[in-house]
């Protein structure tokens, strides 16, 4: 592999020195000012830039500021060159992202060694980033696999299938990503993606509910309903114990919030803590609506599955038991605007 170096220098004499020092070992691109260098960068991405700090028109510092704002270019290592051996100039260059500083007149052997060093360092950095990305991908895959397995085991007791988890995660993804787009101060896109994965554990507390209650085909008594409602606290406690052993992290924190608060209602009529409005974390507000939609559109021993249209009407207009004021207005509006996405997930599950 031949490394590509962009030289941005207005002095023919210094260009000749750099070409003489580097030309046999590297593929060199030459620009006599910053504007021409930017034109080259639109077509070609070098492995390193040797940049004169003092250029006609746009100077090297201004050029570096432009590079730092471009995510495609800000990682290119830059070596500044200048005839001024002033500490403040060197500090300014490093502050803008330069990796090294060479003063004029050039010592060509020093230039060769510095260039070789920084190309090797950048290569090691890229390799390390690749390894970290691969390892992170493996860890995320392992986490998601474990979460799915635990969720399937929890759901299998009441004869639901993996389709329920699939739908829940997809519904959450639709709402969370739209909410993050509209209200990024409330939920970032990265948080939205993790939230949809964590939603698989929303009913994990049901593993501790007795079969005679969990699998009862008819209506629960008041006492049985009290026990059923404890699945929110039981699930949150289980996740909290996991956090005490493995340490705090965002994923488990969201899973705990969801398990505990997905039956809270925006008007304060939910459980287990009768939270009101924004007292409910955004994760719980999202899953609360998703859980109701999924329950309405799923068959149960005591009811048939409702159509998307019927479920939509109940959530938006209410039916006595379910009321629109149970849901966060922002989440409800996202659901209304993206109802067809919900229907697509619902229909695709049974195709």
Characteristics of this structure?
single chain, 351 residues, alpha/beta, Rossmann fold, Hypothetical protein af1432
Per-chain topology:
Blueprint: E1 4-8, H1 12-22, E2 27-31, H2 34-43, E3 48-52, H3 60-68, E4 78-82, H4 87-95, E5 100-103, H5 108-156, H6 162-182, H7 189-198, H8 211-214, H9 222-229, H10 231-246, H11 250-261, H12 282-297, H13 308-317, H14 329-337, H15 339-349
Helix pairs in contact: 1-5, 6-7, 6-12, 6-14, 6-15, 7-11, 10-11, 11-12, 12-13
Biggest sheet architecture: 5 strands, parallel
Distance N to C terminus: 50 Å
Q: Write out the strand line-up for the largest beta sheet, numbering strands in chain order.
A: 2-1-3-4-5
What is the CATH architecture annotation of the largest domain? Orthogonal Bundle
**Fraction of residues in H or I helices:** 55-70%
Shape: elongated
Q: Give the number of helices.
A: 15
What is the CATH domain class of the largest domain?
Mainly Alpha
Which superfamily, in CATH terms, is the homologous superfamily of the largest domain? Hypothetical protein af1432
Radius of gyration: 30 Å
Low-confidence stretches: none
Instruction: Tell me the series of helices and strands, N- to C-terminal.
Output: EHEHEHEHEHHHHHHHHHHH
- CATH fold name of the largest domain: Hypothetical protein af1432
Question: Mean pLDDT, rounded to whole units?
Answer: 88
Structural class: alpha/beta
Number of strands: 5
Domain unit count: 2
Strand content: 5-15%
